[in-house]
Design a protein that fits this description.
Length: about 260
């Protein structure tokens, strides 16, 4: 089974701060990590490879520093890694990002399964995976919490707030992973040595605009139909109100009225 995993390097949101004047993320000194849901997707791909054989290929779109995330993927057990990187891709929204990643997946080819994380913690849109499936004309199942291989088909458990759904699907198919799917493994000593000693930066395959079959009007900042207008930290305010009442009944009536006026009940 040949599996492609889409993986993103993101800032560790436990450490993220916002510049109050510019409304942008302060990235200086903020550690970068593999997006958590993507790591669950990678773990599931590695589990399936361990059980059924095959190959796990990881694709990441980002600046050159994203090579560190790809090295971690190799340390965990990935067989092949690609970095999709070009200045022309800068400013891409989810539509443009999915356009680029779909083209990269077509370039790599030879896959039975594509796994993406449900969403990235720096954007929380949950749009890129489903959009890739649409661009590649593939069936998709989102919010996946369990995968079973049934011959040439997959039996997938999809999480929803009202209950889980069991879905049978043929391959190739795109799935998006959630944290309930598994617990990502730690890299082995051999894997760490392979990723950080044997694998050199120049050994990581780079896919640029010239390598991909994409419409340049659909990528980058100019090709993005959406943009982030402003990022900010909500201002927390407190307001106190003292009520003088004759008895508990009057207090209760006034309190219920106030809560109703605030749309809290």
């Amino acid at each position: 089974m040949n599996i492609i995993v889409c993986l993103k390097q993101v800032p560790d949101t436990n450490e993220v701060k916002i510049n109050q004047e510019t409304g942008t993320l302060i990235r200086d000194g903020v550690p970068s990590i593999i997006n958590p849901d993507d790591k669950n997707g990678l773990e599931e791909a590695l589990r399936l490879k361990d059980e059924f054989g095959g190959k796990v290929t990881v694709i990441s779109m980002g600046p050159p520093q994203a090579k560190e995330a790809l090295k971690e993927a190799v340390a965990m057990g990935a067989d092949e890694v690609y970095l999709v990187s070009d200045r022309a891709f800068g400013g891409s929204d989810t539509w443009a990002t999915a356009t680029i990643l779909a083209a990269a997946i077509e370039k790599v080819g030879n896959y039975d399964l594509i796994i993406c994380g449900r969403q990235a913690i720096d954007g929380d849109t949950a749009q890129v995976g489903p959009e890739i499936a649409e661009f590649l004309n593939l069936p998709q199942v989102t919010y996946v919490k369990n995968i079973e291989v049934k011959g040439e088909k997959l039996l997938v458990s999809r999480f929803t707030e009202t209950g889980d759904y069991l879905i049978e699907t043929e391959m190739p198919v795109l799935l998006t992973a959630i944290k309930e799917l598994n617990t990502p493994r730690y890299p082995t000593v051999r894997g760490i040595y392979k990723a950080y000693e044997e694998l050199k930066d120049e050994d990581i395959k780079i896919l640029t605009l010239a390598d991909l079959n994409v419409d340049t009007t659909q990528i980058g900042l100019k090709g993005s139909p959406t943009n982030v207008y402003r990022s900010f930290v909500p201002t927390k305010t407190k307001e106190s109100k003292i009520m003088e009442c004759k008895d508990k009944k009057e207090v209760t009536n006034i309190l219920m009225t106030e809560l109703h006026n605030l749309n809290l009940i």
